[in-house]
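Progress note, project year one: complex with fe (ii) ion.
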Amino acid sequence: MQRGSGHLSVIDLHSHIVPAVDDGAGTYSEATEIISRMRDELGADSTVVFTPHYSCSMDRRVFDARQRRSNQFQDRMEEEYSPGLNFLTAGELMIRGSSLKYMEGTRYPGTGWVLVEFETGVSWIETLIQLGRLIKRGYSPLLAHPERYRWCRRKRDRLIKLSRMGCGSMVSARSLRFEKYAATARNLLGDGLSHVLCSDAHSPRDLILDGRLKRKLEKFSTVPWQLLTCEMPEMILNDNKLPELPLLKRRKSQ
Ligand SMILES: [Fe+2]
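Model obtained:
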């Protein structure tokens, strides 16, 4: 969707902008620097979801405090930036061990979709088992930055199997800044192996879902920008199932 202003309307499902709760924005002014840039560069009906880091093994008091700060920050941003940008709060949940604590508290509001991540060295088998458990419990896992996992860098089409199970795949624009992950991120986006593109913005230096990133994406991918940054994210916020990967009709061999 393109607004009259020429700015792109997007839904950014993954960001670390809430100040001083995780490894994202460190101060309030750093946080508002990111949000001001989003307001200036994105279309007026764009949505930004705050997704602070959580872990299934974290202390309940830490979890509650982080959630409270995130909700307060959302209220403040709504006062200062709406209309102009819409805000939501969810979380990025690190899955480790057998606990599935905090799934309820971190899912995208009103949906069964939960943004999940693993340690980068997690095995393929462990990933399959853990994601299968979440699906059995009735959740829809959205896998954050698959480009960072060793099993995915070795065999990218494993994401096709995950999508058949009901998992979403979401590449972070932030990975394009890191030499270690940039090639896989580009390949996943180019091969249609990511449902969604998010910013995963941690600081004012990170990329946002603006026209500059769109032009960059179009150099290596024919998957429509709007599908990755608007239509698929909207399906998640509407609690719909995502299509099987790859998004492109043609399949490239690896
Ligand atoms: Fe993240």
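Residues 39 and 172 are 20 Å apart (CA to CA).
The chain has one domain: 11-237.
No further modelling is planned for this target in the current period.
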